[in-house]
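Teaching note: in complex prediction, the entire set of molecules is handled at once rather than each chain in isolation. The prompt given to students was simply: 'Predict the structure of this complex.' The entities are:
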Amino acid sequence: MKKFLVILILAVLGFHLFEAFSGLGLGVTRFEKGVKDYYLEKTVSELHVANTVTSIVVNFRGFDTLGEVTVLFLAVSAMGGILYKRRHQTGDRSVLFSSSSIVRSGSKLLFPAIILLGVYVFIHGHLSPGGGFQGGAIIATGFLLMLIAYENFSVSHNTLSYIESFAGIFFVGIGLLGFMNGGTFLQNFLPAGVLNNLFSGGVIGIIYVMVGFKVAAELTGLIYTILHEKD
Amino acid sequence: MSTLFEIIGGALLLIGSVFLFLGGLGIFRMPDVYNRLQAGTKATTLGGMSLILGVGFLMVETSWMWMAKAVIIVIFIAFSNPISSHALARAMYKGKRYPLITSKDENMDAYKEIVENEKKEEDS
Amino acid sequence: MVGSPVLLIAIPLLAAFVIPLIGMIWKELVRIIPGLVLAYMLILSATLLYYVSYNGTIVETIAGWQAPWGINLDFSPLTGFLATLMSALGFLVWLFSYRFKRNVDFEPAKKYFIFLMLLIAGAIGIVITGDIFNQFVFIEITGISAYALTAFYTGRNSAEASFKYLMMGAMASSFLLVAIAILYSQLGTLNMADIASKMHTMNPTYKIIALIFFITGIGIEAEIFPLNGWAPDAYTEAPGPVGAAFAGIVVKAGVYAIIRMIFTLFDVPGAYDFLIAIGLITLIVAETSALRQEKLKRMLAYSSIGQMGLVIVAFGIGTHEGVFAALFLMLNHAVIKPLLFFSGSSLVFNSKKKQIAEMNGLGKRMPLMAAFFSLGAFAIVGLPPFAGFWSKLSVLSAAANEGLLLIIVLILIVSVIEIVYYFRVVNRIFFQEYSKEQSVVPHRPRINAMVAMFVLAIAILIIGFYPDAVTGILHNAAKDLMNTDQYINNVLQLGQSLTR
Amino acid sequence: MTYIIYISFSFMIVGLFLAAIRFIKGPTAGDRTVALDTLTTILVAGLFLLAYLFGRIIYVDVALVYAVLGFIGVIVIARYLEGAL
Amino acid sequence: MDDKLFEILEYGVYGASILLILIGLYAVLTKRSLIKIVIGMSIIDGGIHLLLITIGYLKGGTAPIFSPGYEEAAAQMVDPVPQALVLTAIVIGFGVTAVALSLIIRLYRHHHTLEIDEIKRLKW
Amino acid sequence: MIYLILIFFLLILMLSAAVYAVVQKDLLYAVIATGVISLVLTAVFYMLQAPDVALTEAAIGVALTTIIFLITIRNTKRHEDDYNKKDNLKSPLK
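The expected output is the structure of the full assembly:
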């Protein structure tokens, strides 16, 4: 009975949503001189950043990114607080036993490559797809591989929180520097460089690298917390 | 007017996609997990590698970066697919799910014995 | 100018990142720094509010891009008033809970203050931002800190309340994203002023669908009727000062977001009637539920929901007097409800079940707390010399001007219900004998908590005896909310003057 | 050339389809994980071929990242099945 | 042929994303296992992200990246704004999911069940 | 044209994986199915010309989401219904 009611409600909801979206048409130019064209124009002419998504995420809507990084920070802290136990029942081990030697040596071999891939992704965030979040997540996944392959692979909690804090401070600090130099928060105060060079886009590359470090530290901390959670 | 690289690339593309298809077919048709593992990871490894190299050959005249990245992906696949299939097979084996043995071969009997012994050891 | 509105957000976030580092050096700083940051935010926002009320709205752009393209912060008399109110309350909550949970381990205590600070920063962000998606991000910041604060005690119920809140919050954010998707697909912009100026070109059907999704999304923070299932549990299970912060800060931010949508963004006909209807339902359901409660915090929670319903009704009247009355109600609620939460949680602090029945005769053992509680109770039901009276009076007169008799009758009936359940508690505190079986052990609040309550009590008395102290600000704010054209002009004009 | 790409895509689609059926049918967790692994590999190859179709090298990065991360996902599930987590 | 297929695609992609949202909502509303509810939540998130990306799609468009050779191609680039929004929304959704799951672990510590009906101690 | 067929196929695959994730009683399979959804979603984002989003979905959705779900299942229980409560204590392989 309840299920039928739910399905009925969902059908009504779905009909209205479909009504709202199907009239749009797919793949048509919808707005003449909308926000999109402005971004596409300015990102080349002023910011000299190849990846428009990066320039939007870091510069045009950089405030969102600051908030997003804060959300991750909060989520990790909240997990730590929620899973906190008064007596420390959690062991030192991330997994119960080590994996077979093939997986262990293989992951030892692949770990530097994965870290390198992550660093590549967030350093080239303004040139190719990717950036801070993706690179950070890739690095955290590399740490995940090591943590589940070895029973006694450990990450220093203090180092993680140093990296996290310093990256966050740098992010806000760069924003405040822009505030002092140009009058608005997160203003680009460095020379923009040449399009498609590694050193282009002024502060955008620097901020995305900071975001990368921060996200990597946060996600690694998150995985570390939840892997050590055992009953 | 196709060049040598295009011919090589096209051939590799075809070979790769056939092997990918065979991987899918094998995983669909094979009787138990280990056989499916064979088909699903070996065939697709070969298929994926040759398809990616094929694309690299097709684009090698445009930019060498394609070939470089293709080689990187191929190396990654060459390392990662065997590791993951090994980890899976080991997990299945440790979970006491032994291969289906239908053959009357002597080797199979020896294998069966080993399996039984290990089973006893683990149980004790 | 002492600073700019962006510092209201940037400084707390910076502090949140700094605190884990500093906590390694000296643990006491973990408690002190959030207080300093909140005090700074209070001073900054109060100064900016003073500046704004003479020189007009400040519109701050981020990263140097003009308003429709970059994110902008809008510090007008209305948003400035709310931001000041929130940071002041945040500072008081910090002051009340400064020595709170001293005996608990360091880790959770550290987190408590970070969450509290970010909760307030997020709520201020919801209010002062001028971009819908940015508002969504701030709603998430507020939400996650609220979930974490609700689950602060490690009991079994707190996790449940927090999970309930989280589920509804996650649904809300999904709905909000759908609404943002509809708006972006129709208008191609995310800036609120730009949306408001282009809204007349949108198809009315789509407009209504988007508005419904928006209200469902934000209504969870604002505790409007069918969506407030989380509120009583969260208020009951969270620590006392956190309940005060929810009632005083988070809900205000949610109500502001709804009001901004309806007054400025969407010109849907009939939206005001919808507000009145939903507000009345919320009011009646919540107040009748409050009558049945046995736990003190739960009763206060339902009362808080009811007050928000009243605020929404007052906004729904839609005239200048109505908006003024609603803002006045918000101010009074933000001053009185924390006092009730503070003194109430001090009264039942040491009891097991935190029930009203356990409060018999506490007035003689803890006279000051009892006095504060009854002051709050008198004020919130609207007895004449106290703060609540003037706001209720202005709601009634605004309704009378519009000839909405039904609203007046219902508000009067609900006031009677309110009087019944608050005076039941006051009666127990003062006129019942203390019995030996009661499990309450008197708990003397520390000096910082006393200071926080004193400040609130004095604020109630000042507003009660001299309401003109605040009406000027409120009139300014109401004028600001009603004037949509001016809002659009402010945001978009300033953007053009800053063209690079 | 176009025909070769069409044929390759058709083979891949059939392969994906068969792997998906195994995913839904597969009696044990192992079968499903193998199907996931196969899906990942076929899709990595498919993404690379699509990058060729789109003709831009920037798309290749996605396939690269996917080749790396998909395998870690499989190892995670395998370690869980081993009882090690 | 292509145009006709594209017309179907127009309904297909919107329809698929809306269906994904509805499937997730169904799971959230009717399922009694807490983990199932969180899974439903993540399905809803996926649907909404697909919806946003679809809004920004341009027929025959290319990714909004001005890499070498594409410096002048601004006219045929897809809308970058929804992509930026989805980037933010994915990370936020992950954070919320992580918090929800840790709450589930703590609930299980106290209640030893995942059934939503048995956990309902507090009144809704 | 093959592009459109591929996108249709992927959408159908995604929807069936979603339905499977919702109706499956075994939570482990449901979690693997969410991994499949994420996988296919990556490909669809990629085909809709959003490589940035595809990269994010791949980086977050494949390994990280899977591991937090798996550890939750490990710490709670694997089946949706209560009929075999002790199941979790045995080997996780069924």
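Point out the following to students. Residues 80-111 of chain E form the longest helix (32 residues). The helical segments of chain E are 2-30, 34-56, 80-111, 116-119.
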